[in-house]
Design brief:
alpha/beta, Hypothetical Protein Ychn, Chain: A, 7-stranded mixed sheet, disordered N terminus
């Protein structure tokens, strides 16, 4: 019994120390955005979301990556002149833009066809998995369900889904 009394205060002290350390530093917010849709109107939506995250949490308190693949690859190619300057400003605040190399190969897009500030990832799916395993949140664009309505973001603990539906799917299986 005497030994148990010695352990309990030590354990309590350890928990208290952990709590104080955690309270003393701000959590960093990390989000990977997936862009799979085509067109400047849809791409503007993801850029708005990126900027809104930085406004809410502060640009210095966020790590953000936007990965374009499938029909969304055009977002990061040099043919996207309408959003290039805005994307450069966003990138200058620390946001990483990346293209999926699998999509690039399938569409015969070379690295020199990407905007100068855009990197690449081997696979969008693998990149999202790596980020989620490292604790990043995930935001997916999916306007294919109902393109006639404005997208609404729905957040789960580790994933945000942008859809055209006006119903909450919080906590649902994706």
């Amino acid at each position: 019994m005497k030994q148990l009394c010695t352990v309990l205060p030590t354990a309590a002290l350890g928990v208290g120390a952990i709590t104080v350390l955690a309270a003393g530093r701000e959590a960093r917010h990390r989000v990977v955005f997936e862009e799979t849709v085509e067109g400047a109107e849809q791409w503007t939506g993801v850029l708005n979301n990126v900027e809104n995250v930085q406004k809410s949490f502060g640009a210095t308190e966020t790590d953000i990556e936007v990965v374009a693949h499938g029909n969304g690859l055009g977002l990061v190619t040099n043919t996207n002149v309408s959003l290039k300057e805005r994307m450069q400003r966003i990138a200058s605040r620390g946001v990483v833009f990346a293209a999926c190399e699998n999509t690039m190969k399938r569409n015969k897009v070379s690295r020199d066809q990407l905007l100068s500030f855009v990197g690449t990832v081997d696979s969008e799916v693998a990149e999202v998995i790596r980020k989620q395993e490292a604790g990043w949140s995930f935001s997916a664009s999916d306007l294919s369900r109902n393109e006639s309505t404005a997208p609404e973001s729905v957040t789960t603990p580790s994933r945000t889904k942008t859809s055209g539906r006006n119903e909450s799917t919080r906590g649902s299986q994706w």
